[in-house]
Design brief:
17% strand; two-stranded antiparallel sheet; 5 strands; single chain; 6 helices; 147 residues; 3-stranded mixed β-sheet; globular; alpha+beta
Protein backbone atom coordinates (compact mmCIF):
# COMPACT_ATOMS: atom_id res chain seq x y z
CA UNK A 1 0.00 0.00 0.00
CA UNK A 2 1.27 3.46 -0.88
CA UNK A 3 1.50 5.93 2.00
CA UNK A 4 -0.10 9.37 2.06
CA UNK A 5 3.40 10.88 2.01
CA UNK A 6 4.35 8.96 -1.14
CA UNK A 7 1.06 9.79 -2.86
CA UNK A 8 1.41 13.47 -1.95
CA UNK A 9 5.00 13.60 -3.23
CA UNK A 10 3.90 11.99 -6.49
CA UNK A 11 1.02 14.43 -6.91
CA UNK A 12 3.28 17.40 -6.22
CA UNK A 13 5.74 16.18 -8.87
CA UNK A 14 2.91 15.63 -11.37
CA UNK A 15 1.85 19.25 -10.86
CA UNK A 16 5.40 20.46 -11.30
CA UNK A 17 5.51 21.61 -7.67
CA UNK A 18 8.45 21.27 -5.32
CA UNK A 19 8.57 18.32 -2.94
CA UNK A 20 10.05 19.98 0.14
CA UNK A 21 10.91 18.57 3.56
CA UNK A 22 8.32 20.89 5.15
CA UNK A 23 5.53 19.76 2.82
CA UNK A 24 6.36 16.11 3.42
CA UNK A 25 6.60 16.67 7.18
CA UNK A 26 3.13 18.27 7.23
CA UNK A 27 1.63 15.31 5.35
CA UNK A 28 3.46 12.87 7.62
CA UNK A 29 2.15 14.60 10.76
CA UNK A 30 -1.42 14.62 9.47
CA UNK A 31 -1.26 11.03 8.22
CA UNK A 32 -0.03 9.91 11.63
CA UNK A 33 -2.89 11.23 13.74
CA UNK A 34 -6.65 11.26 14.08
CA UNK A 35 -6.46 14.36 16.27
CA UNK A 36 -7.77 17.73 15.15
CA UNK A 37 -4.50 19.68 14.99
CA UNK A 38 -4.02 23.43 14.71
CA UNK A 39 -1.33 24.92 12.48
CA UNK A 40 0.78 25.53 15.58
CA UNK A 41 0.50 21.90 16.70
CA UNK A 42 1.39 20.70 13.20
CA UNK A 43 4.39 23.03 13.25
CA UNK A 44 5.59 21.63 16.59
CA UNK A 45 5.28 18.04 15.42
CA UNK A 46 6.88 18.77 12.05
CA UNK A 47 9.86 20.34 13.83
CA UNK A 48 10.22 17.16 15.91
CA UNK A 49 10.14 15.00 12.77
CA UNK A 50 12.57 17.15 10.85
CA UNK A 51 14.65 19.37 13.12
CA UNK A 52 15.56 22.65 11.48
CA UNK A 53 12.21 23.21 9.79
CA UNK A 54 10.96 26.62 10.82
CA UNK A 55 7.38 27.21 11.89
CA UNK A 56 6.81 29.84 9.17
CA UNK A 57 7.89 27.31 6.55
CA UNK A 58 5.36 24.82 7.91
CA UNK A 59 2.60 27.44 7.70
CA UNK A 60 3.52 28.16 4.07
CA UNK A 61 3.55 24.42 3.39
CA UNK A 62 0.03 24.11 4.86
CA UNK A 63 -1.20 26.91 2.59
CA UNK A 64 0.42 25.38 -0.49
CA UNK A 65 -0.85 21.88 0.26
CA UNK A 66 -4.32 23.36 0.70
CA UNK A 67 -4.10 25.05 -2.70
CA UNK A 68 -3.05 21.73 -4.25
CA UNK A 69 -6.00 19.86 -2.70
CA UNK A 70 -3.86 17.64 -0.45
CA UNK A 71 -4.80 19.26 2.86
CA UNK A 72 -8.02 20.89 3.98
CA UNK A 73 -9.02 22.83 7.04
CA UNK A 74 -12.09 23.04 9.21
CA UNK A 75 -13.28 26.09 11.12
CA UNK A 76 -14.25 24.96 14.61
CA UNK A 77 -15.52 28.30 15.88
CA UNK A 78 -13.96 29.23 19.21
CA UNK A 79 -11.73 26.15 19.00
CA UNK A 80 -9.93 27.64 15.99
CA UNK A 81 -9.01 26.05 12.69
CA UNK A 82 -7.76 22.49 12.34
CA UNK A 83 -6.19 20.71 9.40
CA UNK A 84 -6.34 17.22 7.95
CA UNK A 85 -5.54 15.37 4.77
CA UNK A 86 -7.99 15.91 1.92
CA UNK A 87 -9.66 13.85 -0.75
CA UNK A 88 -8.68 10.22 -1.06
CA UNK A 89 -5.74 10.67 1.33
CA UNK A 90 -8.10 10.36 4.31
CA UNK A 91 -11.59 9.04 4.98
CA UNK A 92 -14.26 11.69 4.32
CA UNK A 93 -15.83 12.81 7.57
CA UNK A 94 -17.73 15.65 9.17
CA UNK A 95 -16.93 17.47 12.39
CA UNK A 96 -19.32 17.99 15.28
CA UNK A 97 -18.42 20.46 18.05
CA UNK A 98 -20.15 20.51 21.42
CA UNK A 99 -21.04 24.09 22.32
CA UNK A 100 -20.89 23.22 26.03
CA UNK A 101 -17.58 21.36 26.49
CA UNK A 102 -15.87 22.14 23.17
CA UNK A 103 -15.16 18.50 22.31
CA UNK A 104 -14.89 17.80 18.58
CA UNK A 105 -16.27 14.52 17.25
CA UNK A 106 -15.97 12.95 13.81
CA UNK A 107 -19.11 11.77 12.01
CA UNK A 108 -19.35 9.65 8.85
CA UNK A 109 -18.88 11.70 5.68
CA UNK A 110 -22.22 10.64 4.23
CA UNK A 111 -24.24 11.82 7.25
CA UNK A 112 -25.66 14.83 5.38
CA UNK A 113 -25.81 13.17 1.96
CA UNK A 114 -29.60 13.49 1.63
CA UNK A 115 -29.42 17.21 2.52
CA UNK A 116 -26.52 17.66 0.09
CA UNK A 117 -28.51 16.03 -2.75
CA UNK A 118 -31.68 17.98 -1.94
CA UNK A 119 -29.85 21.32 -1.96
CA UNK A 120 -28.15 20.49 -5.25
CA UNK A 121 -31.40 19.34 -6.85
CA UNK A 122 -33.71 22.07 -5.52
CA UNK A 123 -31.39 25.07 -5.36
CA UNK A 124 -28.37 24.18 -7.47
CA UNK A 125 -26.28 24.67 -4.32
CA UNK A 126 -23.34 22.33 -3.68
CA UNK A 127 -22.89 21.96 0.06
CA UNK A 128 -19.40 21.40 1.51
CA UNK A 129 -20.07 20.50 5.17
CA UNK A 130 -16.54 19.15 5.59
CA UNK A 131 -15.30 22.76 5.80
CA UNK A 132 -17.11 23.65 9.03
CA UNK A 133 -18.05 22.06 12.32
CA UNK A 134 -21.68 21.41 12.98
CA UNK A 135 -22.46 22.78 16.43
CA UNK A 136 -24.71 21.14 19.00
CA UNK A 137 -24.59 19.58 22.46
CA UNK A 138 -22.97 16.18 23.02
CA UNK A 139 -24.66 13.39 24.95
CA UNK A 140 -22.28 13.82 27.92
CA UNK A 141 -23.28 17.46 28.37
CA UNK A 142 -26.97 16.70 27.84
CA UNK A 143 -26.94 14.13 30.64
CA UNK A 144 -24.61 16.00 33.00
CA UNK A 145 -26.29 17.42 36.10
CA UNK A 146 -26.41 21.22 36.13
CA UNK A 147 -23.42 22.61 37.92
Amino acid sequence: MTSAVEVSAQRLRERGERVTPARLAVVEVLAGTEEHLSAEQIGERAEQLRPGIHRATVYRALDALGEFGLVTHVHLGRAGTTYHLAGDLAPRHLHLRCSECGTVYDAPGDTLESARKKLARDLGFHLAPEQVALVGVCKNCLTAPPG
